Amino acid sequence: MDLEATVMELIINAGESKSLAMQALASAKKGEWEDVDGLLEESTAAAKRAHGVQTELIGLDEGEGKVPVNLVMVHAQDHIMTSMLARELVEELINIHRKLQS
């Protein structure tokens, strides 16, 4: 396995998930609900890809330190956790926009 490429895949998918969630929030502010739903679906798919890569890395490590931890790996973990939190908060904000606009 090319560890660097795998870590970059994690960063890219987590970033895409967060970006799509933020686009969904912008669409919610405009009341563009079809766009919101599609963007949230895409965000969820990207998050699942990122989580899949993370799970693969955890499986390779087997809790024994087999996967070297370096600054890029820490950065990737930061990206996925930030992305997950952003998506959760964006979904709550979108729900508020739906209620206010209906």
Description:
The N and C termini lie far apart (50 Å). This protein has 102 residues and is an all-alpha fold. The mean pLDDT is 94. 86% of the residues lie in helices and 0% in strands. The chain has a single domain, classed as Up-down Bundle (Methane Monooxygenase Hydroxylase, Chain G, domain 1), CATH 1.20.58.80.
Offer a concise description of the structure.
The chain has one domain (about 5-100): Methane Monooxygenase Hydroxylase, Chain G, domain 1. The chain has helices at about 5-30, 35-60, 70-100.
Helix content: over 70%
CATH class: Mainly Alpha
Mean pLDDT equals: 94
SS-based structural class?
mainly alpha
Note the main attributes of this structure.
transferase activity; mainly alpha; transferase; Methane Monooxygenase Hydroxylase, Chain G, domain 1; 102 residues
Strand and helix layout:
Layout: H1 3-30, H2 33-61, H3 71-101
